[in-house]
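Our preliminary data section would be incomplete without showing what the modeling component actually yields. Below, a chain of 324 amino acids is followed by its predicted structure, encoded as tokens that our downstream tools consume directly.
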Amino acid sequence: MKPALVTGASGFVGWHVARTLIEGGYRVRLLVRSSSRDPGLDAERVTGDLREPASLAAAVRGCGLVFHVAADYRLWARHPRELYASNVEGSRNLLAAARDAGVERFVYTSTVGCIGIPAGGVGDEETPVSLADMTGAYKRSKFLAEHAALAFARDGFPVVIVNPTAPVGDHDVKPTPTGRIIADFMRGAMPAYVDTGLNLVDVRDTARGHLLAAEKGQSGRRYILGCENLTLAQIFAELAVITGRPAPRVRIPHAAAYAAALGSTAWAMLTGREPRAPLDGVRMARKKMWVSVERARRELGFEPGPVDAALRRAVDWFAANGMG
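Predicted structure:
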């Protein structure tokens, strides 16, 4: 069996994709930077950097599958060009290396942030959307990277795109912005909330969805990997049941949250320290990111389970690792 290359295995979703492949009997190779933490997985490691094309040839050599999960996922960056270098140019570099090496299937991990959301409605893979609809450097960089992947597919390279929503569960090491919400709730550092909504999904289902995309996905097609559309208030209510902590009752108007984020982000630009409330995050919260997963169900056989068990695993993992 040819090895499957996974990028981003030192992060949350990438770690779960790699573990799911290993448990499924795949030979797995990990692309890791010299500065990356050890993911603790039984897999071959190749040192390289998406921003250095010459380092990628050895990583993709002999591989049948590539799962490009790695991304610079930050809602604030003092130097936004860093996100474009990793997410856009880095993805192009890996796509080109994989194509030149004769890789049989490339799965690119995008984000639900690249999905169009109609006003007051639920989005899907065909909802119209443009670069102008993308809020912040992270979403813009992922949108451009997704379109680079689609261009390779149009040129005949077999690329399938998955758009995970907001995965939750164990091993959220950084943590992700969604994981940070859970950890902050556990610490009692979430006294209030804004009226927004997310689509949550068990990260283990997200990983299985990647494998289904590799096996059954159509080249040049996008697949949303999600599960439950929930308001932030509903998420906090479920966390209250799990942790025994009270859910915040104060709802902050978006205008007030925006003003606080302006100050927090301005201070971050001066100090270089990540803002407590990134301005782009507050801008994103004005829209409920609710989507349909029917295409993935119909074409991939993707059947995600309820997210309450994943939230419990996240709470237990954060507590065991001193993060909540």
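The radius of gyration is 19 Å. The first strand starts at residue 4 and ends at 7. Preliminary results of this kind motivate Aim 1 of the renewal.
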